[in-house]
């Protein structure tokens, strides 16, 4: 019953086929690069949605994991000069992300949920400073330029399909996770933590596992981000990166998985568009101000984002009472 | 004056500044369970408004006054429009205050531009005095004095006035306060505006101490305040004071001896407290 419209495999297949056709319709390198970055940001935001939308915990340091991925690819590839070590680098990043998630989660999730927001923020700042100060290892404020990536990735069309496949696999994986008994427990924690606790579940363990999965996925996205950019610098640990994930998830639709993909597309293209206009209208340089206002309006009045709101409208038309009450209940989440 | 004493005094001065931010954050959280992620941005707004008025009128006192009023107004609007409709919904409150942080920070860049702005000390507070035959900047002494005054003032407010009693009771059990016929929501608004006003006041006082302002000033100082309230115990007034002093002193010493790891030490201290006594050094286990 749930999400017939958007989680329907047929619908998904249609979108996938349409995206597969893009390189054959347009060979614009600019467009393909934009779409690749949309796909990577979409995976990053989906991993954030697992925390925010499905577990109900607010991280303000999600970029820690993204940055870990980005730096481990950048550092390993540039230090060894072996482009083929990319998969090893991503593996290291994933393991590292899992360990860091465990440490941060253990410190903060034991206490109060609000501690988690504060402490993730503090750790993100710590990683930012480490990446800046430990310059012999990370290249300091300049970062690492000209990361040599496998030649395979230099072909934009090939990279496009890799990124698309990555997005599709990660979407299916996370959908599998949230629909599994484990994912159902996470959603139960989101709805009523005390009740889950009193049913005998170890809530802390579930939250930790959710954070670890989310961190690992974000690290993979970060690793491929360096492959796309061919450089990495302290920006990957900046607060703005976490804000990206927040904006994309909130705008697209919290707790929908597909929403963050839509959000990533909307935000990336809108950002590009506003930046290109800002040469004419200088006030558009403050594009984040407009996104901030949009973000507040959505949190206050459309707590389910673009996708959730459309989905509710659609269901409501169908006149299904069950769906309406279901959506009302979900409204209480955010 | 020995180097150690000098660093110690500098640490107390820094601690006073952090305290001005932390006390509002801590009280607001203790009373209404809201962690205000825009608190640092209010600090920055206070500093910028204070600087603008100071430059326009030449009076530092007027600058402090204007900055504080700006903070109170921002805090009051924030509580009324964005926090109040969402009491009981922590996720929405956290997300909204972060959104406000983005807007307030971008607003500063829009009004005053993204670059550094110099903030000179007022003439009366410039220069040095000799402490134990070594020079020490007057402005630092002024900062320490302000921190002490606020500490005593808030302490008296909390322990000696009717509102203070209501606030402390509200931290313990807001529903009971409401049941006793007190409009607890109005107390919430007042404390929110008061906390924001203190942060903005702290911003103006901190300005000349930093020497210059940048739009991201709020975030950096807010992080210190977060670490302070985790260490001292959230919602705990003496804890906020002790934590500020501790972090101020440790950061000053680290900045002198091992500048690269100053932040790491603060985070490490927070981690230790979280493992050893998650409710904070002076916190009470509930």
Automatic annotation (TrEMBL), chain A:
Pfam families: BPD_transp_2 (PF02653)
Main location class: membrane
CC annotations in GO: plasma membrane
Xref: InterPro entries: ABC_transp_permease, LivM-like
CDD domains given in the database record: TM_PBP1_LivM_like
Keywords, sorted A to Z: Cell membrane, Membrane, Transmembrane, Transmembrane helix
Topological category with respect to the lipid bilayer: Multi-pass membrane protein
The keyword rRNA-binding is assigned to this record: no
Top-rank lineage group of the source organism: Bacteria
GO MF terms held by the record: branched-chain amino acid transmembrane transporter activity
Name of the protein this chain belongs to: Branched-chain amino acid ABC transporter permease
PANTHER family to which the protein is assigned, alphabetical: ABC TRANSPORTER ATP-BINDING PROTEIN, HIGH-AFFINITY BRANCHED-CHAIN AMINO ACID TRANSPORT SYSTEM PERMEASE
Lineage: Bacteria, Bacillati, Bacillota, Bacilli, Bacillales
Localization per Swiss-Prot or TrEMBL: Cell membrane
Transmembrane segments: 51-73, 85-108, 114-130, 157-174, 208-225, 245-267, 287-307
From TrEMBL, chain B:
Biological processes annotated in GO: amino acid transport
A Pfam family annotated for this UniProt entry: BPD_transp_2
GO cellular component: plasma membrane
Main location, first listed in the record: membrane
TM annotation in the entry: 12-30, 60-78, 90-112, 138-158, 187-206, 226-250, 257-276
Subcellular location: Cell membrane
Family: Belongs to the binding-protein-dependent transport system permease family. LivHM subfamily.
Protein name: ABC transporter permease
């Amino acid at each position: 019953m749930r999400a017939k419209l958007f989680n329907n495999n047929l619908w998904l297949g249609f979108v996938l086929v349409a995206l597969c056709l893009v390189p054959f319709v347009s060979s614009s390198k600019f467009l393909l690069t934009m779409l690749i970055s949309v796909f990577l940001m979409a995976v990053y935001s989906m991993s954030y949605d697992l925390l925010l939308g499905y577990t109900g915990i607010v991280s303000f340091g999600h970029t820690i994991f993204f940055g870990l991925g980005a730096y481990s690819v950048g550092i390993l590839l540039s230090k060894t000069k072996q482009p083929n070590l990319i998969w090893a680098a991503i593996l290291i990043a994933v393991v590292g992300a899992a360990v860091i998630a465990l440490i941060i989660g253990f410190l903060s999730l034991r206490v109060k949920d609000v501690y988690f927001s504060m402490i993730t923020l503090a750790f993100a700042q710590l990683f930012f400073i480490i990446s800046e100060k430990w310059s012999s290892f990370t290249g300091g404020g300049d970062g690492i330029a000209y990361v040599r990536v496998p030649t395979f990735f230099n072909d934009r069309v090939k990279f496009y399909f890799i990124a698309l496949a990555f997005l599709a696999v990660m979407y299916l994986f996370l959908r599998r996770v949230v629909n599994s008994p484990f994912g159902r427990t996470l959603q139960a924690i989101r709805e009523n933590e005390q009740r889950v606790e009193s049913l005998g579940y170890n809530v802390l363990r579930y939250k930790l596992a959710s954070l670890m999965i989310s961190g690992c996925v974000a690290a993979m996205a970060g690793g491929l981000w360096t492959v796309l950019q061919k450089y990495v610098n302290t920006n990957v640990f900046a607060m703005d990166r976490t804000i990206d994930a927040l904006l994309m998830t909130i705008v697209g639709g919290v707790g929908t998985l597909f929403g963050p993909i839509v959000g990533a597309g909307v935000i990336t293209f809108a950002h590009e568009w506003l930046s290109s206009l800002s040469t004419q209208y200088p006030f558009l340089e403050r594009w984040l101000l407009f996104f901030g206002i949009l973000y507040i309006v959505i949190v206050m009045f459309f707590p389910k984002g673009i996708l959730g709101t459309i989905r509710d409208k659609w269901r409501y038309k169908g006149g299904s009472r069950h769906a309406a009450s279901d959506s009302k209940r979900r409204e209480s989440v955010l | 004056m020995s180097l150690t004493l000098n660093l110690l005094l500098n640490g107390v001065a820094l601690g006073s500044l952090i305290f001005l931010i932390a006390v509002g954050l801590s009280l607001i959280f203790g009373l209404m369970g809201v962690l205000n992620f825009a608190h640092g941005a209010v600090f920055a707004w206070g500093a910028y408004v204070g600087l603008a008025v100071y430059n326009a009128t030449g009076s530092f006192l007027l600058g402090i006054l204007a900055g504080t009023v700006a903070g109170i107004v921002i805090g009051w609007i924030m509580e009324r429009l964005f926090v109040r409709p969402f009491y009981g919904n922590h996720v929405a409150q956290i997300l909204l205050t972060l959104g406000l942080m983005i807007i307030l920070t971008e607003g500063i860049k829009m009004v005053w531009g993204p670059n550094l702005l110099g903030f000179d000390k007022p003439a009366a507070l410039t220069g040095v005095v000799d402490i134990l035959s070594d020079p020490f900047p007057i402005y630092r002494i002024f900062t320490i004095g302000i921190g002490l005054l606020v500490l005593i003032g808030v302490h008296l407010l909390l322990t000696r006035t009717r509102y203070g009693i209501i606030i402390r009771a509200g931290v313990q059990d807001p529903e009971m306060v409401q049941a006793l016929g007190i409009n607890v929501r109005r107390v919430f608004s007042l404390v929110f505006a008061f906390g924001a006003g203190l942060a903005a006041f702290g911003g103006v006082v901190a300005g000349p101490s930093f020497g210059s302002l940048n739009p991201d000033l709020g975030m950096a100082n807010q992080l210190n305040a977060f670490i302070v309230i985790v260490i001292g115990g959230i919602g705990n007034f003496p804890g906020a004071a002790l934590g500020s002093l501790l972090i101020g002193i440790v950061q000053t010493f680290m900045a002198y001896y091992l500048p690269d790891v100053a932040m790491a030490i603060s985070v490490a201290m927070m981690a230790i407290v979280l493992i050893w006594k998650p409710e904070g050094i002076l916190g009470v286990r509930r």
